Amino acid sequence: MNGDALIQAASAIGAGLAMIAGIGAGIGQGFAAGKGAEAVGKQPEAQGVIVRTMLLGAAVAETTGIYGLVIALILLFANPFV
Amino acid sequence: MNGDALIQAASAIGAGLAMIAGIGAGIGQGFAAGKGAEAVGKQPEAQGVIVRTMLLGAAVAETTGIYGLVIALILLFANPFV
Amino acid sequence: MNGDALIQAASAIGAGLAMIAGIGAGIGQGFAAGKGAEAVGKQPEAQGVIVRTMLLGAAVAETTGIYGLVIALILLFANPFV
Fold first, then answer.
1. Which among B15, C27, C34, C47 is most buried, taking Cβ atoms within 10 Å?
2. Which residues 6+ apart lie within 8 Å of C39 measured at CB?
3. Residue A30: its chain C contacts at CB < 8 A?
4. Hey, which CATH number is domain C16-77, 1.10.10.10, 1.10.1740.10, 1.20.20.10, 3.40.50.880?
């Protein structure tokens, strides 16, 4: 076994670990979805602005999940160590 | 043991780790389902817009779970290291 | 020890790790069940629409748990590495 194999093996584990960040976005965006559904039920005439606000907030919550994805993709396809 | 076996073994662990991201979507979408059910109970006449908002938000919350699935599938079937 | 044994051992760990995703669906769907029960208690006449909304949302929350199950089954029965 050479060193490159060890680095690639560790990178595969690292890529999997990076995806765990997605837990946060999933919880947060689901909370936003629930409150959004509650709000449109109370004020259906304000649906447009409620949904836009929900999606804007969810897009911000998505960022850390995308950071994890980017690091995983770098580890797999643009690994600086191998 | 050769290096490829080590990389494949680590990729199998990495694929499992990547799926842990699904925790977030499960919690978040369940919260959305609960708030959606509560909202339609209070305003049954607004059911359509409540359910649409709930499903739209849940779709956004699904994304990070799908990122994890994509990384797991890459590690298993399109692994750049083996 | 040969490489296949290491890959199979790691795949067993990976399959177990993938199932951790089920935490999310369990929490989320339990929350949905609780809010659904609360809602039918307050508006028994709306039971049909409440339960349908709850089950629709819970089905969405199930998806990431199923992704984890699929990856675990692939690691065990359709492992691309062994």
1. B15
2. B37, B38, B40, B41, B42, C46, C50
3. 28
4. 1.20.20.10
With beta carbons less than 8 A apart as the criterion, state whether B8 and A8 touch: no
Q: Which of B12, B28, B36 sits opposite C75 (nearest CB)?
A: B12
The ipTM assigned to this model is 0.95
Return the pLDDT at B27.
Answer: 98
Residue contact A29–B61, C-beta within 8 A: yes
* Unique residue bearing structure tokens 């936003």: A32
A21 and A78 Cβ atoms separated by less than 8 Å: no
> To probe the interface with A, which of B71, B75, B77, B82 has the most A CB atoms within 10 Å?
B71
Cβ proximity of B41 and C34 under 8 Å: no
Express each pLDDT in A35-82 by its tens digit.
999 999 999 999 999 999 999 999 999 999 999 999 999 999 999 998
Radius of gyration (C-alpha) of chain A in whole angstroms: 19
With beta carbons less than 8 A apart as the criterion, state whether B33 and C61 touch: yes
Residues 25-44 of B with CB under 8 A from A: 25-36, 38-40, 42-43
> What DSSP designation does C45 have?
G
Given a contact cutoff of 8 angstroms between Cβ atoms, the answer to whether B4 and A5 are in contact is yes
DSSP A28-80: HHHHHHHHHHHHHHH-GGGHHHHHHHHHHHHHHHHHHHHHHHHHHHHHHHS-T
Q: Does B9 touch chain A (CB under 8 A)?
A: yes
